[in-house]
Structures are given as structure tokens and as C-alpha cells.
Write a structure and sequence with these properties.
By secondary structure, this protein is mainly α. The chain is 53% helix and 2% strand. It has 8 helices and 2 strands. It has a two-stranded antiparallel ribbon with strand order 1-2. α2 runs parallel beside α5 and α6 packs across α8. The chain is globular, with a radius of gyration of 16 Å. It starts with a helix and ends with a helix.
């Protein structure tokens, strides 16, 4: 594709060009569709946390994690819409809605913490070979240390499936 056509495509779709310039992405974009109404403002706000995250990615991740259920608890003890484990929540949890408490069961708190954590993971995996969104999702699912140790390969089969489903099936549903 000619460079001018790539720039036009990125402009029309609201995306930015990837590092290779080959396809549009939505890095740093708060634009999103099909998000349940109570969560739209928080997804848009979390998408502005850093250039590595965007609204469709965060929304797709929440659908995969909890199917938008704020009281979800996994068998592994992960909690809320973004499914934070207690140790990760202790580090990244925040009182985003300013009600005096930070809780993974409160979507505003969890979604803003998700944005912050995904930006942290983007920094953790930046030197690894591969697609940054995929690497971030692997790190969210399997942990940043396991993802770094895998050096550009899926750290687990579950993480591979997790990232693949989010990026190929779910992100398009939330992309404007």
C-alpha cells in the first residue's frame, strides 16, 4: 500500500499507523462502540492512560475477563470486571470514582486500574519481539515475568488463546 493511502486509511478509520506502517491500529484512542452505557466514560478515560492502550482493547478484555459482571470472582481469586488478583490490585487499584474506597468490584476503580496496569505491562514487554498488544495480553493473563521469560512466544496455551480471542473476535466488536 502506498504511504499516502496508508495515512488516509489511518485518518479515515481514526487509527494510527503501526510500527510497520502496514495496518491501522487504535493505539491511544478512546473511541469505542457497543460498551454497556455505565462503562463508556470509564473505558474512554482509561484508554487515555497511555498510547499503548485503547478503548476497543480494554472493552474486549473486560468481556473476556468477566463479561461485564462487576461482582465476578474467578476460581483463582481474581475479582471484578477486570479480574484483578489481590496482589496486583494492591499495587494498581485506585479509587477512581472518589467514594473513599478502592474496590475491584467497582467498575470505575477496576477499569481505571486496568488501563494503568496495561500501560505498565506495555513498558514491561517493550523489548520483546512480537506484537505489543499480544504481548501485553499475554502478560495480563500469565504475568509479566512469565511473558518476558517466554521471549516473544506465548507463555502458556491459555495466554495464547486469551490474546487471540480478544484481538481477533472481541476487539472488532468494540471498534468504531
Amino acid at each position: 500500500m502506498h504511504a499516502t493511502a496508508k495515512l488516509l486509511l489511518a485518518f479515515v478509520t481514526g487509527g494510527a499507523l503501526t510500527a510497520t506502517g502496514a495496518t491501522p491500529s487504535y493505539a491511544g484512542s478512546p473511541a469505542v462502540k457497543n460498551v454497556p452505557r455505565p462503562y463508556v466514560t470509564w473505558i474512554r478515560s482509561a484508554a487515555r492512560t497511555c498510547a499503548a492502550v485503547n478503548g476497543p482493547l480494554l472493552a474486549a478484555q473486560i468481556e473476556q475477563e468477566s463479561n461485564w459482571k462487576p461482582r465476578a470472582v474467578s476460581p483463582a481469586g481474581a475479582k471484578g470486571v477486570a479480574q484483578f488478583k489481590p496482589a496486583t490490585w494492591a499495587t494498581f487499584g485506585k479509587d477512581a470514582n472518589h467514594n473513599g474506597k478502592k474496590s475491584p468490584f467497582e467498575p470505575p476503580d477496576a477499569i481505571m486500574a486496568q488501563g494503568t496496569y496495561m500501560c505498565y505491562l506495555a513498558r514491561q514487554v517493550r523489548s520483546l519481539p512480537g506484537n505489543r498488544a499480544t504481548l501485553m495480553l499475554w502478560a495480563y493473563n500469565a504475568g509479566p515475568e512469565a511473558t518476558k521469560a517466554a521471549n516473544g512466544n506465548p507463555p502458556t496455551a491459555e495466554a495464547r488463546h486469551y490474546a487471540h480471542r480478544i484481538l481477533t473476535e472481541l476487539v472488532p466488536k468494540y471498534r468504531p
